[in-house]
Amino acid sequence: MNRVPRLIDTSGVLRWLPWVIIAMGAVLRIVRFLHDRALWGDESALALNLMHRSPRGLLEPLDFNQAAPVLFLLTEKLAGAALGYTGYALRAVPLLAGLASLILFWSVARRILDPLGATVGLAFFAVSDPLVFYSAEVKQYGLDLTLAMLLLVLILPVLEGSWLTRWRAGALGLFGVSAVWFSHPSVFLLAGVGLVLLGMAFLRPSRVKLVTVALLCTAWAVSFLISYLFVLPNTKTVQDELSLAGGGARAGETSILRQVLTQTWDSFSYPLGAAATATGLAAVAIVTGLLVLYRRNPALTLTLAAPGVLAVGAALVNRYPWGDRFVLFLVPAVILLMSAGVDELRKRTWDRLPVVSIGVVTLLLAYPAAVSAKGLFKPPAIKRQEIKRSLSVLEAGWRRGDALYVHYVSQYALRYYAECEECGTLEGWEARLRGWDALTDVRPVPETVFEHALKSRPPDLIVGEGQRQSFEQLTRQLTPLRGRARVWLLFSTTTNQEFLLYLLDGWGRRLEVVTDPEVALYLYDLRRAS
Hints:
Helices cover 62% and strands 5% of the residues. Strands 2-1-3-5-4 form a 5-stranded mixed beta sheet, with helices on both faces. By secondary structure, it is mostly helical.
């Protein structure tokens, strides 16, 4: 007899362990929130929009190459107006979404997977560091994931054979009509569910009425089209920027296909959170789970898989950015499929080779668990631009007559912390920036889609012209600083630092250096060459 499974079943471990895992996942998310890391480039750029725009103004195209769903912006605006525009206030909504996603994932996993497989999936979901990270970021991607789980909770009874009653149809209709205003990729989720329901309406007309499904899909489509008109100018700008960075349509379909395949493989590491060395194993588990679940419940399996297929199709025609945070909404479905595959492997190998099952689970869980455990004490470096200490040093060390060079990415955080009265950083700097006439209307950088939050006022303030600059451009830009006794240089990225420091070390001498993750502050005397 198999002693271990009997011990697990009779001791009731699988009845209380999931709640321990949920509590552990909640602690990871709350601790990450309490770390209060500095807002990085995109976060601070979005925060500036929230600070300076009225609720009505948030319905118009956003500044600084930002795009976000309308109701997400209004919710964040409400939090900022009520609590102040601090990192804590603006990250409160993503945190609540992250905590809710733990409960929602378990409520789905326990219904479609065996107890052990559901528990393994929940453990991976709880400790995956990208999921923890997006529970404490001033962006909408964590909410994308939570809404994906909520849709599965609502549609699952119908997929399991229950009637599509008026109450269920009403709940799905209300969810879909509002979801597209909170989450851009929810359209792929709703389209996938709509296609499955249409198929069921033809195959099971007694339980799923075609008229009901048609009304649902029409309501979803109308709501999406209206919301799309609001966000189209922003999403087009972001899409253009991503296309320029990745080759896009101008590189031809072959290049786009290659990019999609590469990003798909990379997505196992991020945003899924698996170890790079376990990518192949995770892929096999997902394919296995897809086959296993399809035999049990084809409608459910198609519901899990369809949004990803639709998103890939949109990416191939250059209408949706594929990979990274943009596919975070697919992670719950991927983890469910992977867990189903792992559980199937356990069933087939436990009696003869239990070490195989134990090894597979260990390989998949060990890395994300270790990363998250480390993150309890020190947040991972991903998208960390810990600029607050450098800003404090800049504020304390600033003297009359000093000059400042701000790297292009750093300008958003500099302006945000100068204007955030509740943040307690760079007090008085908003007046200094206004004294320099440095606060600017939005102006695109030449030959790019990027926009400035600050404008240069040489020789006192110089703002980098773009993320990628040639040595000649940097030389031209920094020439007005030559001869100054004290020149500060602020970076929240490592891009071009080597060029710039090589240049400045030839013009003068370095007086002070402050470094933190992805951030550096330098003070130079440029009166004479070293």
